[in-house]
Request: fold
Amino acid sequence: MNFRNVDRVDTISAEDFRENYFKPRKPLIITNLARHWPARDKWSPEYFKQLAGNITVPVYDNSIPTADSAVNAPDKVMTFGEYLDTITSGPSDLRIFLFNIFQRVPELCKDFDYPTEFTSGFLKKYPMMFFGGCGSKVYLHFDIDLSHVFITQFTGRKKVILFDQKFNSQLYKLPFMVQSYIDPENPDYTAYPALKHVEGYECEIGHGETLYMPSGIWHYMYYQEGGYALSLRSIENPVTTQVRGAYNLFVMRKIDDFMKKYATRWWYNYKHQKAAKNAAETLQQVFNAA
Reply:
């Protein structure tokens, strides 16, 4: 696997952003996008505990799902306050994802702005937060609705690895899913030889920095320190992409959930075998073209 750095700017004009990053679907770090947000200085673990510490939340660890894993089941359930204490007291692989705390505490929406100068179509009803302890991972996937994402980190640092959709089969994408469980930080070329020919981006983001992730881009995240991030999503895409996103959400995912429930082990084995077969066929094409 070969990686290049993600471009990094303090600020950028809307015209430059759209011409050089949005249209070509290229990631970018904007270090000062959130500089005027109240959230940048206001959002702390103690502040969140005061507002929502008693909310019960599902949390997930670093374990990779197996054929026997319950469908979409959390690894633990605890109060939000207990969770924040856990990730601020030391290393922990526990994560919370797609947490719409804003439904419970709507006044938090006043603490940030949508970057509408860069794109339209923001899903303003669904701002989301992601929390993770030091050492927790977000396994490789792309967002199922194919939205553009502006993800702003608060507290701590996070490593991010990104790949273009053209590498789907070489990343051992599982059929009827938007996921792969290969480890891009420690690729196993013996088990997954197609990874040798994959190219991607890598970067780190820290407090107050925003990473633009284009529609459909694969991403893997590793929390180098405990922290959390705000995700603002835009569906400004061609109609064909919006249709694909809707299919993923309302058809593909439903098929996968159904098969997981009623043909659990067969379906698990089929998807992994199919992913390996797709990767091998693509690898052969690479060799033939060389």
Observations:
- The domain at 2-289 is CATH 2.60.120.650 (Jelly Rolls).
- The first strand starts at residue 2 and ends at 5.
